[in-house]
Specification:
The protein is α/β, with parallel strands linked by helices and 245 residues long. The chain has a single domain, classed as TIM Barrel (Alpha-Beta Barrel), CATH 3.20.20.70. Helix content is 37%, strand content 20%. The chain has an 8-stranded mixed β-sheet with strand order 1-2-3-4-5-6-7-8.
Length: 245
């Protein structure tokens, strides 16, 4: 669902902003429905996002948001520069969450976001989903080798060394066919060692072609709540995915 949505949760008093973006350049994850809201038209993207950002700025003032979480159904760095620049009144002085695939992340790209948007802190969320390379790539279709996870961990250290106010957080997907709960637990533990935290996301099936949902044991629920900075149980408005037409 495109738009701006206030939220008070373990991450703070925040505004969730769901922008329209271009189709993801990877576009091969087996479970992803976000292409349903994307557009190939630059004009449409600019017009729609201009409206979303204007409303988001109003809402941020009303709720006194201290954090802004931006989604665009792909990597933040695939948004048009004009859209990124629209966000500055919303992000300046606030914690900013963005999403990206690893290949877009470098000291240069992250520093550019800091320079343009001036957040108090930048939190980069990366959809690694599971630590096991075979499951991640053969089952989930992520196309992320283990070497990129190690590079990303090193990048986090490099950014910290130069004093950049940047954190890197890994997404872990659970409740999906093909990812055993034991691998979910392992993933949370390993990513917590390499990055600044883990956000666990419960999978929801949107299309018949997508993998089936899997049950979640009480033991896993308890582990995730103890071990993750945030667990998204898929009950918020931002989970409502539909055509942008």
């Amino acid at each position: 669902m495109l738009g701006a949505f206030p939220s008070v949760d373990p991450l703070g008093r925040r505004l969730i902003v769901v922008l329209q973006g271009f189709p993801c350049s990877w576009g091969r994850c087996s479970f992803c429905p976000f292409y349903l809201e994307q557009s190939a038209s630059l004009r449409d993207i600019l017009e729609r996002n201009r409206s979303i950002v204007a409303r988001a700025i109003e809402l941020a003032r009303e709720i006194r948001a201290d954090r802004v979480t931006v989604f665009n159904g792909g990597s933040f760095f695939e948004l048009p520069l004009a859209v990124i620049e629209m966000l500055k009144p919303l992000t300046r002085g606030r914690i900013l969450d963005i999403e990206s695939r690893p290949e877009f992340l470098s000291v240069s790209s992250v520093s550019t976001v800091l320079r343009i948007l001036e957040p108090s802190r930048l939190v980069v969320r990366v959809g690694l989903e599971v630590f096991d390379e075979r499951i991640r790539n053969e089952v989930l279709g992520k196309g992320i080798p283990q070497s990129e996870i190690l590079r990303l961990s090193k990048l986090r250290e490099d950014l910290r060394a130069i004093g950049s106010p940047v954190e890197v957080v890994a997404y872990v997907l659970f409740g999906i066919e093909g990812v055993p709960e034991s691998e979910v637990v392992r993933s949370v533990r390993e990513f917590n060692k390499l990055f600044d935290g883990v956000i666990a996301i419960r999978y929801r099936r949107y299309l018949p072609s997508h993998p089936s949902e899997a049950g979640v044991s009480d033991e896993l629920r308890s582990f995730l709540e103890r071990s993750c900075m945030y667990v998204d149980w898929g009950e918020g408005e931002e989970w409502s995915i539909g055509s942008s037409k």
